[in-house]
Amino acid sequence: MLQLNNSLFLKLLRTQAGAEGPRLAAACLASGVMQGLAVFTVLQGLEQLSDEGIQFHTFLAFLICLGSFYFLFRYITGRSAQIALRGIMEWRMRIATKLRSISLLEYERLDKNRVQTALLDGRELVVEAARMLMATAANIVMIFVACAKMLTVSVQGTICVFLFMGVGLWVFLRIVNSVHAHMGPAMQADQNFSASLRDLQEGLQQLKLHKPKTTDLFGNQIIPGLNTASDAREMVEGKHALGISFFAMFNLLILGLILFLLPGLLDLAPEDTSTLLVLCMFSLTPLISLVSFVPMLSKVEFNLNELADVEARLDNVAERFEEQGVQTRWQHADPVIPQFSHLQLRDIRFDYHDRNDMRLFGISVDEFTLNKGELVFIGGGNGSGKSTFMKVLAGLYTPHAGEIILNDTRIADINMEAYRNLFTVVPTDYHLFSRPLGLHVTPERLQEVLATMRIETKVHLTEDGRFSTLDLSAGQRKRLALACALLEERDVYLFDEVAADFDPVFRRFFYEELLPDITRRGGTVLAISHDDRFFHVADRVLTMQDGFFRNGAQNSEEGTR
Ligand SMILES: Nc1ncnc2c1ncn2[C@@H]1O[C@H](COP(=O)(O)OP(=O)(O)OP(=O)(O)O)[C@@H](O)[C@H]1O
């Protein structure tokens, strides 16, 4: 059921309009009154037409009403649209800030499609609904003005018209409520269908190579999804059409009743009957805008409820040090990054849980130390917990037990941000931004590092500070990621299977020259790697198995540098 007192849309407009709200409401009222007065002057003109002819003052009054109505109507519809647009954009900005502030683990758990849809869809609808709301409100005022005039013509006739209209509205609102009840499932079905389409786009390469995959995706996901979405939408549209056609028919019916029934029933004079008819005609047309506005409001409420749900979910999982940034709707000051000397992990436990809180996998590290200038490799089978360990080490996952100690100081939630900024992490799914984000780097310095990565002929910095291209091979992308990582000039480098995409020549260069060079210049490197033929360059090699370090985290298995 559509409930206006809990309407997020109205709340959004009220909050955003602030002090301008009462002015808008007054202008809306005045606009409706002017519209009504314009109708009166038309009526007056009609009367004068059959007597002595149209008077100039009637014409002037008509023009004044018309002009006032035009300016007021333009103001309320234009401003309300701007206010709604600003409101929805600020809300999205707030959600984007909150999205940035949640922990990585919570981010990985989020339904990304839902977040994306909530953030991107429906903006135009909200703006259009704001415009429609103002137009509808002004129209309703005009209807009241017209009704007041009707009362002066015939009280009984007006009561009859009210009764007719009341019955029509009651039936119409019942239909609208059933439209609202079906709107949620219909939009949900649309979202499911969109998710299937995303599978199609993102997996197109695999689908092109494997017909059964395509058949399966279309046969069991896309086509059933489309059918469900279409069926649900057809039901909504069917109800909507029922509402609109009923109302359109009822309009005519009311006019018919006034013309054919009221004169005999109430002994109305012909001129009173025609006045009632004209007023009714002017009043019923605006009611149609109400007919199309109410289903639109249902859609808007659904969209805004999605936004509110996403925001509430993010609110529950914001990291503590981000709170200040969220409150200012933007960014708190950069943290002061400590000098790295050494760090320790003690009695660390970290577990993944499913939605029912069942433990899926976990790592357990009794003691781990990393010293400035060290080159440490971590090996181990797939799924043994290496990447998870790296994320815990970098402070991206908060351990459920144990402590992280940096330079003999325990890291708590509150200094976690400064701690994280010690690290440059190149994960397996490194995202390349379109420009070297957050790096104050000259084109010459970038070119130098690109040359070290041997991609200087492939990519360069354009005049507007962007990378000339990101259409690179997998290995080239990783080299560019590495270049960005080096330019960050952080104290500790964490590499997760960075070399997996490198050719043999660059791989040798990476292990035997680049990594030792980083440590020679005072950097510290911890690299996850399966390339055991290069393990001799490391100071220590640790092996993970089932979430533990085999032989402990302090005992090197193969490193011999
Ligand atoms: N976000 C997650 N939620 C739940 N379980 C996860 C999550 N990420 C990883 N896991 C599980 O944790 C285990 C260890 O994963 P991890 O990525 O740390 O392994 P890895 O040693 O880096 O493996 P690989 O060598 O294949 O990259 C795996 O069994 C994986 O299924």
UniProtKB/TrEMBL annotation:
Any one of the GO CC terms: ATP-binding cassette (ABC) transporter complex
Extent of the signal sequence: none
Spans through the membrane: 21-42, 54-73, 153-173, 241-262, 274-294
Classification via Pfam families: ABC_tran (PF00005)
UniProt entry keywords in alphabetical sequence: ATP-binding, Membrane, Nucleotide-binding, Transmembrane, Transmembrane helix, Transport
InterPro entries: AAA+_ATPase (IPR003593), ABC1_TM_dom (IPR011527), ABC1_TM_sf (IPR036640), ABC_transporter-like_ATP-bd (IPR003439), ABC_transporter-like_CS (IPR017871), ECF_ABC_transporter_ATP-bd (IPR050095), P-loop_NTPase (IPR027417)
An MF annotation (GO) of this entry: ATP binding
Membrane-related topology note: Multi-pass membrane protein
Protein name (database record): Peptide ABC transporter ATP-binding protein
Lineage: Bacteria, Pseudomonadati, Thermodesulfobacteriota, Desulfovibrionia, Desulfovibrionales
